[in-house]
Specification:
The chain is α/β, with parallel strands linked by helices. It has helices at residues 37-52, 71-88, 97-102, 162-165, 189-198; strands at 3-8, 13-20, 23-31, 59-65, 92-95, 111-117, 122-128, 134-142, 155-159, 174-176. Its EC number is 2.3.1.234.
Length: 222
């Protein structure tokens, strides 16, 4: 059996899923405003392994969300994934965060635009077809009333930016799937298994999250 542990920490959702042959069999996750990833992640991993009745030695790979997303969240998830991959001597698989988010939209037509909040009116976004073929590269962009105006097809927006983006993205062909807010490890299962089968793995020693923007360290105003 090919058991893969999937880790998703790119947003407020701290999520861990165990998959067998590309199908999620267990998932634990929680989305909190205060980012509890550091406290929750390793607990979730231990609980899932125990509940599944396996040991870490039964894992064939570790998959991790590669970003873009929260700098701190990505660092925590990638550090844990790299540590497990190295210690168990099994492959590390990097999964596109926006593709994971887009995969939750089950539609038969149009385009899917997953967006992750990057503060103010800026978002991380990409454009996918319903079968998850990428139509446009990942960008960090400021959303305005002119954004995506050249698209005539139906556009399905997913992610945690709905509230702020609805005020400016008002074309009739724009549809917000509000129920799809965060990427989840359970949606990584098939994506990571497909990469595992083709040997599409990351170098444990040199892999870094895809931050997209430079991380800015600010000093306290106090």
């Amino acid at each position: 059996m090919s058991y893969i542990l999937n880790i998703e920490t790119a947003t407020k959702n701290c999520s861990v899923a165990l998959a067998r042959e590309g199908k999620t069999i267990l998932c634990k996750e929680i989305a909190e405003e205060g980012y509890s990833h550091a406290e929750r992640l390793h607990v979730f991993i231990e609980e899932i392994i125990a509940e599944a009745g396996i040991t870490v030695n039964d894992l064939v790979a570790i998959a991790v969300s590669q970003g873009p997303g929260s700098y701190t969240g990505l660092r925590i998830g990638v550090s844990a994934a790299k540590g497990l991959s190295y210690a168990l001597d099994i492959p590390l698989i990097a999964v596109d965060t926006l593709k994971t988010l887009a995969s939750q939209a089950v539609v038969s037509n149009g385009l899917i635009i997953p967006m992750i909040d990057a503060r103010r009116m800026e978002v991380y976004s990409a454009i996918f077809t319903p079968n998850l073929e990428r139509k446009r590269a990942i960008l960090a962009e400021i959303i305005t009333e002119d954004s995506f105006n050249d698209i005539e097809e139906t556009v399905y927006f997913v992610g945690d930016c709905s509230e702020k983006c609805k005020t400016v993205l008002t074309k009739e062909n724009f549809i917000f799937l509000d129920e799809i807010k965060y990427p989840s490890a359970k949606e990584m299962s098939l994506l990571s298994f497909e990469k595992y089968k083709t040997g599409d793995t990351a170098d444990v020693a040199y892999f870094e999250p895809y931050y997209l923007k430079d991380f800015m360290i600010t000093t306290s105003k106090k």
